[in-house]
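PROTEIN–LIGAND DATA SHEET

This sheet pairs a single protein chain with one bound small molecule, zinc ion, given as SMILES. Inputs appear in the order they were entered. The predicted three-dimensional arrangement of chain and ligand is reported afterwards as a C-alpha cell string under its own label.
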Amino acid sequence: MPETMSGSCKCDRVKFQVAGPISMAVNCHCNSCKKLSGSAFSTLVMVDRSDFKLAGGDGEVTRYQVSDRATKYFCRICGTPVYNEHVDLPGKLILPVGALDNPAIVTPTLNAHCENMLSWVPKIMQMKNFEQSPGG
Ligand SMILES: [Zn+2]
Ligand SMILES: [Zn+2]
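PREDICTION REPORTED AS:
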C-alpha cells in the first residue's frame, strides 16, 4: 500500500491527501450507511486525522450532523462524501473508499452490522456479470 493516497469528489473541486497508512478497512452494512451512501453498504477506511490534508475545495466541504456522535463531511456541489468523524474515534477520520482516486488499493477485511446486510449481497458474483452496462 503506497504511503500517500489522494482523493477527490466527483466534481473535482474537493481534493485531499492522506500521508499515512490505513488502519482498518470495513464494509459497513448498517442502515445509517445505506442512507448516507445511497447504496447497499459502505466500504470505509480509517486513517489518522494528522495524516489527512485537504488539498483543494475547502470552501465546498460542508457537514451534516448524523447523530450527536457522528458527523459527515461532503462536497456541497456534487454531494460526494469525503470523510466522517465519530466521537468514539478521536484522532481518526473515516473515509469512504469511493472518494479515493485509486480505491483498488484498499481491501476490506471485515463486514460490520451483518444483521442488516441485504440478503443478495453474499450472492453478488452469482449474478450475470457484464464488462459494461448490459444496456449498451
Ligand atoms: Zn464535488
Ligand atoms: Zn455503517
